[in-house]
Design brief:
Blueprint lengths: L4 H8 L13 E4 L5 E4 L4 E4 L27 E4 H10 L11
């Protein structure tokens, strides 16, 4: 599954500060692709309305072609999520053939 940068960015606004509890400094991604974060009082769940279809994923040699949902969710440290946001382009350009 592809998680959009906007979902990570929106969820990071709800997480706690660096001195908070361990789990508040993480972003949780469910097997359904829902991004969750909390500060202990407020929980934010961001769901992509239009997820990418499996046919849009690139085919990698040596990897099974069928994509399966992970069995469990994934915790990503907030610092890593911020680096992922910074590494992805803000806008994609559409090439125009002339």
């Amino acid at each position: 599954m592809i998680i959009r940068r906007e979902a990570l960015k929106a969820a990071l606004h709800a997480r706690g500060d660096a001195t908070a509890k361990y789990v508040h400094n993480y972003v949780h991604i469910t097997p359904e692709g829902i991004v969750e974060a909390t500060d202990g009082c407020v929980l934010v769940r961001v769901k992509d309305r239009y997820p990418y279809p499996p046919e849009d994923y690139p085919q990698v040699p040596g990897v099974a072609s069928r994509l399966e949902k992970p069995a469990n969710g994934t915790l990503i440290p907030a610092e890593i999520a911020q680096k992922l946001i910074a590494a992805t382009p803000k806008k994609t350009t559409i090439p125009i053939l002339t």
